[in-house]
Amino acid sequence: MHSHNHHHHQDIASERIGWAFFLNLGFTLIEFVGGWLTNSTAIMADAVHDLGDSLAIGSAWVLNKLSNKHANARFTYGYRRLSLLGALLNSLVLIVGSSWVLVLAVPRLFDPVMPMTEGMLLLAVLGIVVNGYAAFKLSKGKSLNEKVLNWHLLEDVLGWVAVLLVAITLTFVDWPILDPILSILFTLFILVNVARNLVQTIRLFLQGTPDQQTQIRLAALLVEPKEISTAHHVHYWSLDGEHHVLTAHLCLHEQLNAAEVMDLKLKLAHLLADFDLAHTTLEFEYPKEQCRDHKGQQ
Description:
Layout: H1 2-38, H2 41-66, H3 81-108, H4 117-139, H5 144-172, H6 178-205, H7 212-221, E1 228-238, E2 244-252, H8 258-272, E3 279-285
Parallel strand pairs: 2-3
Antiparallel strand pairs: 1-2
Helix pairs in contact: 1-2, 1-4, 2-3, 2-5, 3-5, 3-6, 4-5, 5-6
């Protein structure tokens, strides 16, 4: 049942990312035509940026599907970390793309261009609707991959809100400098949030603990049973930001028979049940037994 629910969850995630990909790619093509017709360099720049987003979302879609593959002799934990790789690559693409937008926007502060406001208004409304719907679809996702892609789309929504505000304002006043100012502000906002996600993704990619407080709680729970004296080599890490792994060596106070070992396993299973761990490996060490990993990292 757990396996069925997991695959159902993964299929829904792939469907959400697929929707976002086709919506984003289709609208990118409209943007290129619209930017040419309105003579708006801002819209053309956003079209190029959206093209990068489409490629990023497309790669994330493929990686998300591959992450569903079962474990094998080469990848014994399966392919879940491909989803994490997708989140890492997409964060980098978004940071590079946003930086490129800043490079385009800053010079326009000194040489603003007046575009065709009617066309900007139409494209802005369409952009908000299309990207907003795609962002709404991905906002239901829980994986890091979906969260990062959601920031891609939120950036586009905010961008089109900025275009809409500028277009409305330029209909009444001759202030074309508002375009680069708003572009810089929303791009910096997105960069801060994506950078936060990137830091978390890199930490998980390097097998850092997903949550330090949970790591401390787990280490304390492992020594609660009276049969256990100490715990070492306690490693709590994540496959993809959602599915976590716990491994530990547990030192016993005394020798236990088979029934007592089984009873201890049930106690530990009960203590760890609330953490919903994807993989748990606990090794018991008897008194005076030397840990074979004693030279390794604690």
